[in-house]
Amino acid sequence: MIDEAPYLRPRAANHVPLTPISFLYRTADVYPDRVAIIDEDRRFTWLEVRRRCEALAAGLIRLGVKPGDVVSVLAPNTAEMFEAHFAVAMAGAVLNTINIRLDAETVAYILDHAEARVLMVDRQCRPLAEATLARVTGAMPTFIDLGGPGDGPAGCIRHADLVQSEAPAFVPLLPADEWQTLCLNYTSGTSGRPKGVLYHHRGAYLMALGTIAGWGLSGHPTYLYTVPMFHCNGWGHAWTMTALAATIVCCRQISAKAIVGAIEAFGVTHFGGAPVVLGMLVEAAEAELFTLPHAVRVMTAGAPPPAAILEKVEALGFDVMQVYGLTETYGHVVQSIWDQAWDGLDFTRRAMMKARQGVRFPTTESAEIWDAQSGTRLPQDGSAMGEIVLRGNTIMKGYHKDEAATEAAFAGGVFHTGDVAVQYPDGFLEIKDRIKDIIISGGENISSIEVESVLYRHSAVSAAAVVAKHDVKWGETPCAFVELKPGANATADDLNQFCRQHLSGFKIPKHYIFETLPKTSTGKIEKYKLRERAKAFP
C-alpha cells in the first residue's frame, strides 16, 4: 500500500502547470533557425517568433495590460495573428480573437461583454473596427494597428514598433494554475447574442498533444493555415504546429487558387478546412484548374461533409480525416479513424465510412449518446438517436458571465453538445442533426443531413441545406435550399426524381428553392436564415 505522505506533495520540480507557451520556448531553443512562419513575402524563424512574442508581451504590459485583462484581435490569418496566440498569454492576459465577418454591432457587444482592454486590428479590418468603436458603450479599448494592406489610422500605436522594441531578459507570466483562462472565444451567435467560451491553459496544451497523436503527425509538417484563427483559435493548430516546429504558411484569403498555389510553392503537407473548402477544390479540379503535385493530408470539420464530396476530393490525392467538435470543446474531440479492414471496399463505400464523425480523440474521456428526456445512455446499435454528450479535459471552463447557461451545458456531469447522432457497435458516432434541425413529419424523425447527402450526390448541386417547413397535414416537411454549380442546370422535378431513387418517400423534400446559400466565415451554412426564408414560401 502506498502512503500518500505529506512529503510526496507536488513540487516545482515535478509539477509544472501545463501551458502551450512551453511549446514556443522549447521549439525556439531546439530549432532556432527553422522557418516558422511564411506570410506572403515575409519569413520568420522560430527564434525570431519567440523574440517578437516577448517584445509584444512586454509592450502590452507597458500599456497597462494586467493578468486577466482581455486583448481582442480583428485580423485574418497573418503572422501577427499567429504570434498573438503566445504573446497575449505571455503577458498574463486573455486572448479574444473575433470573427472578422461579424457586423459592427455584434463586435461592439463582444468588446463590451469581454471588457476588452486592448483591440489589435489588421488594416483589412479597419472599416469594421472603426464602425465597431463608434458603437462601444463601455470603456474604450487601446487601439493597436497590426499593419496590413492600406493605411493605418494616424496617431495610434503600431504593432511593428512594439515588436521591434528590445525586451531584455523578458520573463513570461506563466500561469501559476493551469486552470487559468487562456482564451475567450465567442460562439457564432446564430440565434440571440453570442456566448463567451472560456478556455484554460491545460485544455489548449492537451488539445495540441491530442492532435499530434490523433492526426498521426510527425517530423516538421508544412501547414497551411486555412482554418480562421478567430474560429476556436484555428482548432488549436497554432499550438500544435509550434510543438512540432512546423512551418506555418499564412493564408489571408481562402480560395482553391490560394490553396493549390501554396501547395506548389511551399510544399504544404497539411491543412484544415470546412467541407465548403473541399467543395471548392473539387469544383476547381473539375474545371481542370490544377493537378495535385503530391499527397496532402487534410482535416475537415465544421459541418458533416457529404460522402460524395469526400469521394471526389480523395480522388484528387487529398487524404481527408473528418473530425467533430464545437467552440466549447477547443475544436475537434471526435475523429474518423480509418480501419484497414475497409481498404477493400469500393471507393463510394469507403467515402461513406469516412463520412461518419468517428470515435473520441486520445484526449477525450468519453463520447456517448444520451436520451434527451431521461438522461440515460442509448445503445450503440446504429439506429437509436440521441444527443452527443462529452467528458474530457478539452472542454471549456464555462460561459463568460453566464452561470445559468454553464450549468445547463454541464447538467448530469457531461457536456451537452446539442447534436443528435447514432452510435455504432464499433463506437463510431454519426451525426444526424442538430436537435433543433431534426424534421418531425407525421411523427417520423427525418435527418436533414441524410437528405442533404443525397442532394450533394447530384452532379449539378454545389451546396444543399434542408430545413423544416410547416405543413398543415404532416406538421413539418423537408424544404431544400439548393445552390447549383456554375453553368449547371437542374429543376425541382430533376432533383425530386433523383431523391426518389435514394430516399423513402416521406423524406423527399416537398419544396426546392434555388439560390446562393448564406454561409459563415468558416463555411457553415446558416440554417437559421433559411428557416426564416422557408416561412415566406407558400
Question: Mind explaining what this structure looks like?
Answer:
There is one protein chain. By secondary structure, the chain is an alpha/beta fold. The chain folds into three domains: 21-163 and 175-204, Rossmann fold, CATH 3.40.50; 254-435, ANL, N-terminal domain (Rossmann fold), CATH 3.40.50; 439-536, 2-Layer Sandwich (GMP Synthetase, Chain A, domain 3). 31% of the residues lie in helices and 25% in strands. It has 17 helices and 26 strands. The strands form six sheets. It has a nine-stranded mixed sheet with strand order 2-1-11-10-12-13-14-15-16, with helices on both faces. Strands 4-3-5-6-7 form a five-stranded parallel sheet, sandwiched between helices. It is an enzyme of class 6 (ligase). Residues 450-524 form the AMP-binding enzyme C-terminal domain.
